[in-house]
Known about the structure:
The structure holds 2 protein chains of 2 kinds. By secondary structure, chain A is of the alpha/beta class. Chain A has a single domain (23-244, 279-330), classed as Rossmann fold, CATH 3.40.50. Chain A has 12 helices and 13 strands. In chain A, the strands form 3 sheets. In chain A, strands 2-1-3-4-8-7-13-9 form an 8-stranded mixed beta sheet, with helices on both faces. A 3-stranded antiparallel beta sheet of chain A has the order 10-12-11. Chain A has a two-stranded antiparallel ribbon with strand order 5-6. In chain A, strand 11 (262-266) and strand 12 (272-276) form a beta hairpin. The longest helix of chain A has 16 residues, at 38-53. In chain B, helix 18 links the parallel strand 24 and strand 25. At the A-B interface, strand 2, helix 3, helix 5, helix 11 and helix 12 of A face helix 1, strand 9, helix 7, helix 9 and helix 10 of B. Strand 2 (81-84) of chain A pairs parallel with strand 19 (446-448) of chain B, so a sheet runs across the interface.
Amino acid sequence: MSFIKKPKIDLPGQLSNKIGLLKRDYEGVLSTLCAGCGHDSITAAIVQAFWELSIPPEQVIKLSGIGCSSKTPAYFLSGAHGFNSVHGRMPSVATGAQAGNRDLICIGVSGDGDSLSIGFGQFGHAVRRNLNMLYIIENNGVYGLTKGQFSAAADKGSKSKRGDINQWKNIDAVSTAISMGSSFVARSFSGDREQLVTLIKAGIMHPGCAILDVVSPCVTFNNHVGSTKSYTYTRDHYHPAAQTDFIPPASEIMVSYAEGDSTIVELHDGSKLLLKKAGSGYDATDRSRVMRYLEQQRARGEVVTGLLYINAELPEMHRIYRTSETPMKDLEFETLNPGSEALKKLQAGMR
Amino acid sequence: MSEARVNDFVLKIGTVNGTGSASANGMILKALFRMGIPVTGKNLFPSNIQGLPTWYGIRANHAGYMSRSKHVDIMVAMNAQTYEKDLANVSPGGFLIYDSTWPRDRQLNRDDITVLGVPLAKLCNETFSDARVRILMKNIAYVGVLAALLNIETKVLRGLIEETFASKPKLIESNLKAINLGFDYARENFTCPLPIRVERMGDNSKHIMIDGNSASALGCIYAGATVGAWYPITPSTSMMDAFKAYCKQFRIDPETGQKNYCIVQAEDELAAAGMVIGANWVGARAFTPTSGPGISLMSEFIGFAYYTEIPSVFFNVQRVGPSTGMPTRTQQCDIMMCAYASHGDTQHPLLLPANPYECFEMAVSAFDLAERLQTPVFVLSDLDIGMNDWMIPELKWDDNYRPDRGKVLNSDEVDELEKFYRYLDVDGDGIAARTLPGENAKGAYFVRGSGHNKHGMYTESSTEYKDLVDRLLVKWQTARTLMPGPVLIAAEKETSIGIIAYGSSDGAVVEALDALRAKGIHADYLRVRAFPFNGEVTSFVENHETVFVVEQNRDAQLRSLLILETNADAHKLIPVLHYSGMPIPSECVVDGLCEHLRVEDVA
């Protein structure tokens, strides 16, 4: 039995958000992943982020491909329509869904196998179209459901549970996305709830394709000594490049920050991202410097996290297409159908 | 001199692709059409952009026969490279026109045809100065030659030119000049008109000339399709080109300039299928045009949409397979693949248009059927229908038509339910109601290609799995009642001989019926228009001793489907096959039947 209904328990003292929903209203069915799986922490962060943003669940669509990570959309937002597609093809379904109804808030959950191997092409094209969605890659470096094969994200030289050494260079989702011209690229760690929730919120509100690569250790197949995706390794090499605060629309920036040490990025809905450089001089809006910095840190084996690159001005798919503001699915048939007179006129030119 | 043959000939024009001959050929086609003569135009072209041989065949036929004829009565050999082949292809008693600016090979000759030389290049070089114009006008000049030889009305040609270049008066002048060059030369040097010629005939004002891909695209517009996802592939590309052109005409908001459509050129056919499914899932009518190789790539998603019951429309403009095959040649080779596309137990409704008229109609009904049945629906045309110029009755539209969106519960309807279950069939037709994302949290459900039960939940239970896939069989029976039925042409006399065909094989069969009758062979003809077959197809097979199944593929795929799906006795289904990549001619049908029936006589 892989499906367990989650009991809804009313606990005293639970807080309602702005639209009167409790956090449990953002939960889904009970996870069947292994105890301690990083993916479950990400699910909890997603629940937290959507609750904090007070987004009605029915406005959300949640999609995934195939794999452990792709099971997780069942574990959050039971009030949102979900779509567990075929392996590596979540982005195309999301593209169609966005094409058909641009008003939906779209979250895609994928894994490193799903996005960097079988679905590498579709991952790239979601970025290229700047599809308005939050695209999370729950990255553990292995194929869990088929029992521990290396994925394309596994670092060269890392050791599998059975003792094999990976001979292949890894595909890094973050630098790949930035080099492809992504408008929002972040990395986080399933063990850092605070940062994760902030980045998820920023990604949801970002008007374009927000790529969020989350190191999410596989406790069963990739949490041993020699793995570069284990809890221990990640904690030891965890390196936030910059701290980001998410400030909802019409809220004042309460924290104090030194002029010149922070950048504010305004999103279209009025919310703001406060990027603190934390003395490192990191500038998430300077693409070439970001790439250089990431390459330096990669060479040292550091896991750089945070909102690593952002350009909120890049137009998303519909802005480029100049599609109607009214979602395609809501256009009246009378608007879409030219009628019999128009058909007659058209055919006059076919003689 | 042979007897005059009026409004019954095949004209073939051999040129080099990329030289602009298409407009000249189109002009001849339309001129004949405007003279009230039934006419069709078929392009035979290479998978190439410039520099290779290409032919355009025009068949004018007073009886309205539309299929490709094997005969060539008049050949215009503009391509020196193919002169030898073109000369050999002319039927005895026919005519060959060539550019006599350069001497032709005297070694190549035939005394059973008439060869007419016209110094087209020389005439054009003397008249026009620009190099590109000279090449283009050489084509228009042969239109003038043909006008004189065939008796095409010059005022019709003039009208066409004036319409075509209404915005560029200079071009009207040069085109008319080129027409006259050819026309005058022919008049002065040959006995005009030839015994093979045209005369103004009926009234074509209730007909149009159109290709199937344009008609399919127009059907998508009229069906209210808004999302088109595709990956370019011959011979389906012109369908999306047409859809885009019609969208620009009909779907741009005059006030805002915003588009009431969304066309996504996908990264590959897999993605195109995913997009179509995603868009339909959220409630937009979405489709993809493709060809056989595209369906191969889309197959995983097709099975997904079948099992998760998401409406989707796939246009397969078939071309020659297997593999890359011959992309610019026609075949009916994907019916078996489309009927059962994807792994596991899957089956899909197919619509089988025989001409652009049905492409339009069936494009519209494909969306209705897909949403009613909540399943992928295929429209199977082919290169012959999709890319060639057909004369069809004017398309009609009923302004009272409203799309059938199938069982979709809106937010209020969901509120009235105690609980919403996505895959629960409440009325026995095998179809459960769906909800659309973005409307009501109570109607939310999870689409998954993994095992699911009638409540829409994940399952690994044998009973629940079987429960669901067995319901899909009930839906299949519902589909059977909704698909368009076959078209019967009954023989004048009672007969035990039947013919079954579909799609672009229709023209050849219709023409063959007349030829067979003249030989004393009477046959009932049933044109299948959809899969799954309904009872009429089954009883047609049952009621005839011998049923010839005419189709354009090597493996007799329709015959196999009939055996599988109607329990027909395989022995009485006789395959008549044509799979050269050229559209099937009527002779193939006549010969196929005669050969078999003669053999039977002897036995």
